[in-house]
């Protein structure tokens, strides 16, 4: 067994998943904040539009969840900057796990199944 990911490891992994998706889809990434208590984590631009992106990552079988108070704060901040808010929900599973419990413990430098369906608008 390898070393399990901490919450910080998991968060950074999720940021990398969303970052790659943004770059692959033509976004210019302006800034990435690794700190878990900073929102939004990613500031990006595409076609002159500014994007505030909040990323949340969870382990199998869960998905990252955007809490309503965080969404409200980021939305309020985004209005001042005429930015669009998006949410990246990432789920990570240990690909070598044989049971649901083992799959729920991704390991550093391990193999993963990633559940990510792209950026989503903030819930209204």
- The overall average pLDDT, rounded, is 96
What would the principal axes of the Cα set say about the shape? elongated
List the total number of helices: 3
Q: What structural category characterises the helix and strand content? A: alpha+beta
Tell me the radius of gyration.
Answer: 15 Å
Outline the low-pLDDT stretches: none
What is the rounded distance between the termini?
Answer: 42 Å
What fraction of the residues are assigned to beta strands by DSSP? 25-35%
Please give the domain count: 1
Main β-sheet description: 6 strands, mixed
Helix content: 25-40%
The H-and-E topology, N to C, reads as HEEEHEHEE
The total strand number stands at: 6
Describe the 3D structure.
By secondary structure, the chain is α+β, with helices and mostly antiparallel strands. The protein has one domain (7-45, 61-108). Helix content is 28%, strand content 31%. The chain contains three helices and six strands, in the order H-E-E-E-H-E-H-E-E. Strands 1, 2, 3, 4, 5 and 6 form a six-stranded mixed β-sheet that branches. A hairpin with a 2-residue loop joins strand 2 and strand 3 (49-59). It is elongated. The mean pLDDT is 96.
């Amino acid at each position: 067994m390898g070393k399990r990911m901490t919450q910080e490891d998991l968060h950074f992994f999720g940021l990398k998943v969303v970052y790659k998706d943004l770059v692959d889809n033509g976004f210019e990434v302006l800034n990435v904040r690794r700190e878990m208590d900073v929102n939004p984590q990613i500031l990006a631009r595409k076609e002159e539009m500014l994007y505030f992106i909040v990323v949340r990552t969870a382990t199998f079988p869960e998905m990252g969840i955007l809490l309503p108070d965080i969404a409200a704060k980021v939305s309020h901040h985004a209005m001042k900057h005429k930015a669009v808010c998006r949410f990246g929900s990432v789920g990570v599973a240990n690909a070598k796990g044989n049971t649901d419990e083992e799959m729920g413990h991704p390991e550093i430098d391990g193999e993963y199944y990633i559940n990510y369906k792209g950026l989503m608008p903030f819930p209204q």
